[in-house]
Automatic annotation (TrEMBL):
Name assigned to this protein: 1-deoxy-D-xylulose 5-phosphate reductoisomerase
Residue positions binding Mn(2+): 148, 150, 229
Reactions catalysed: 2-C-methyl-D-erythritol 4-phosphate + NADP(+) = 1-deoxy-D-xylulose 5-phosphate + NADPH + H(+)
Family indicated by similarity: Belongs to the DXR family.
Taxonomic source organism: Shewanella yunxiaonensis
Lineage of the species this protein comes from: Bacteria, Pseudomonadati, Pseudomonadota, Gammaproteobacteria, Alteromonadales
């Protein structure tokens, strides 16, 4: 029996994870559910999954949850530092890291430092902490498994020895020439460029193939998501920028590919449903059912590919350049983007302002070297202050 903690239980990945656990209740148990403020959804999840602990980071939300599930035998806890203790408890075998944004970094790192099996969905944590994260995985003997569908696909296409050296592998020595990171291009792949300044949050979060939380959906529309994934791939697979290529594949059937020096290309395919990579990470190296429909090639019909257009997707270009520049730049970009997306979702700035704010912060923030988590959080904070200043330029 694997005891799991679900960080971000009330979100999209949390929901998919709980669905895979329910399909495999003989082998997996929910030890703890973690969320921020959504009491109603958390109470429903507690009734359904009967965790040992339910943790609301927000103290008021935790109080409300206590009242809402008073009849259940569930320990309700709250707080940021208490969350770090929770993921480190000895009963915990694996942790699904699916809190959105920078808020997920500290608890994900705590799980790594406790040597847990860490299923990583929270790409922002890795974009920010990069080298420190990868070093901590090795130092504390944690097992890292990539949930993000592209990285999970790449992982599945790697030789077993390379899989076991995540973050420290040598692609070249494994005969790999390139990682081909696929992306759908989102809802605006073929929209008239002139219409982009006036697209609404509702249009931006309507992804053609995937159903996801609001922040990552906006990131998919700007292709910042692919940019963050480019950085994520850089760290997970110890890849140089010359070994990474973004390929637009609108059908989202191929989830990414690995090109070998002999001309072979390995790809992982499936319906666009996160339960597949989640189930893969939960059971690795075994396989379990996920509840996802088998892929029907006759329904798919066609697979197509094209190159990304940076005039349509400036955020992708910013992220690729930041990746080349280093971890300081990607940390600034990640923080700026989080602020910009939040303001776009509130209807306060235009869709095209997101890239402007990101670029402004990359130019303005002094990028001091990152030697500790404290350094990372300080730089993240400065970038957020700068991004809020940048908002003023958008009116
Ligand atoms: P979501 O918005 O649906 O859910 C976010 C979850 O994080 C919620 O449970 C919320 O309570 C929790 N949360 C937010 N702020 C928090 C805080 N300060 N402290 C504690 N918990 C907090 O997001 P999602 O789509 O499930 O994405 C989660 C993560 O997984 C993101 O990093 C995203 O990039 C990544 N991811 C998502 C998908 C997908 O298909 N949804 C695919 C790949 C990667
Ligand atoms: Mg992805």
């Amino acid at each position: 029996m694997q005891n799991m903690v679900i960080l971000g239980a009330t979100g999209s990945i949390g929901t998919s994870t709980l669905s895979v656990i329910s399909e495999n209740s003989d082998a997996f148990r929910v030890f703890a559910l973690v969320a921020n403020t959504n009491v109603k959804r958390m109470a429903e999840l507690c009734r359904l999954h009967r965790p040992t602990v339910a943790h609301m980071v927000d103290a008021t939300a935790a109080q409300q949850l206590k009242v809402a599930i008073a009849e259940l035998d569930v320990e309700v806890t709250s707080g940021e530092s208490e969350l770090l203790d929770l993921v480190s408890r000895p009963e915990v075998d694996s942790v699904m890291a699916a809190i959105v944004g920078a808020a997920g970094m500290a608890p994900t790192l705590a799980a790594v430092k406790a040597g847990k099996r860490v299923l990583l969905a929270n790409k922002e944590a890795l974009v920010m902490s990069g080298r420190l994260f990868i070093e901590a995985v090795a130092e504390y003997g944690a097992t890292l498994l990539p949930v993000d569908s592209e990285h999970n696909a790449i992982f599945q296409c790697l030789p077993r020895e390379t899989q076991q050296q995540l973050g420290r592998c040598d692609l070249k020595a494994a005969g790999i020439s390139k990682i081909l990171l696929t992306g759908s291009g989102g809802p605006f792949l073929r929209a008239e460029l002139a219409t982009l300044p006036t697209v609404t949050p509702a249009q931006a979060i309507k992804h053609p193939n995937w159903s996801m939380g609001p922040k990552i959906s906006v990131d998919s529309a700007t292709m910042m998501n692919k940019g963050l994934e480019y950085v994520e791939a850089r760290w997970l697979f110890n890849a140089g920028v010359e070994q990474l290529q973004v390929v637009i594949h609108p059908q989202s059937v191929i989830h990414s590919m690995v090109q070998y020096q002999d001309g072979s290309v390995m790809a992982q395919l499936g319906n666009p449903d996160m339960r597949t990579p989640i189930a893969h990470c939960m059971a690795y190296p075994a396989r379990i059912v996920s509840g996802v429909e088998p892929l029907d090639f006759f329904k798919v019909g066609q697979l197509s590919f094209c190159e990304p257009d940076f005039s349509r997707f400036p955020c992708l270009k910013l992220a690729m350049d930041a990746c080349r520049a280093g971890q300081e730049a990607t940390t600034v970009l990640n923080a700026a983007n989080e602020v910009a997306v939040a303001h776009f979702l509130k209807g306060e700035i235009r869709f095209t302002d997101i890239a402007k704010i990101n670029e402004f912060c990359l130019e303005q923030v002094v990028q001091s070297p990152l030697d500790s988590i404290a350094d990372i959080l300080a730089l993240d904070g400065e970038a957020r202050v700068c991004a809020r200043k940048g908002l003023a330029l958008c009116h």
